[in-house]
Write a structure and sequence with these properties.
By secondary structure, the chain is α+β, with helices and mostly antiparallel strands. The chain has two domains: 64 residues, no CATH class; 117 residues, no CATH class. It is 53% helix and 8% strand. It contains seven helices and four strands. It has a four-stranded mixed β-sheet. The longest helix is centred in the middle third of the chain and has 24 residues. The chain is globular.
């Protein structure tokens, strides 16, 4: 999906007190479905409160997801939603956005390879199930690092000094472990794309 990078290409959507949305690029009122279409086409937009100028993009995107989920077009499994809610207000919440963004970017990049694999006759459900299991395992492992005593348990107890991880941190620190797990997940995605 191509995404605009020039800030001047960003479409401004004004949201009025009556909850109406106004697309300044087309000078017309639009619906959430229109904004959903803009997302699918890779058009970058911001939603601003018409009176205060406050950025409402996150709330409106969340509202689009809510609308899709309530209309039966759900893409988010119940277990995922429960775990996601569980991370609000906790330590892992700070790493969660970056991890989710990396995962979604990786998934988007892999779509084309998966399409080629699927056209070769492979089962789409099998591929998605394997990827979902790998993602959940990696995510659960990353979250274990935030439990008391988990960091100490993940370090080798050989009496040697700390080893240096790929990002320059110690092999036992949470950031290095998360980076290693993300690299392992990318390797699994690449392997699925080659099948």
């Amino acid at each position: 999906m191509a995404k605009t990078t020039d800030p001047s290409d960003t479409v401004i959507i004004k949201k009025y007190a009556n909850r109406r949305l106004y697309d300044t690029s087309t000078s017309s009122y639009v619906t959430l479905e229109h904004l959903s279409d803009l997302v699918r086409r890779g058009v970058d937009f911001e939603v601003r409160d018409a009176k205060t100028g406050e950025d409402l993009t996150r709330q409106v995107l969340t509202q689009i997801i809510f609308e899709k989920e309530t209309k039966g077009e759900g893409a988010l499994p119940l277990d995922f939603l429960r775990k996601l809610i569980g991370f609000y207000g906790g330590g892992p919440q700070t790493l969660l956005p970056a991890w989710l963004e990396m995962s979604m970017n990786s998934f988007a990049e892999s779509q084309e390879r998966w399409s080629k694999t699927l056209s070769g006759g492979a089962s789409p459900f099998g591929l998605f199930e394997k990827q979902a299991q790998a993602n959940m395992q990696m995510f659960e492992s990353a979250m274990q690092m935030f439990k008391p005593g988990a960091a100490a348990a993940s370090r080798p107890d050989n009496g040697s000094s700390k080893k240096t991880g790929a990002a320059g941190g110690s092999a036992g620190d949470p950031l290095s472990l998360l980076q290693q797990q993300l690299a392992a997940m990318q390797a699994q995605i690449d392997a699925l794309g080659r099948k």
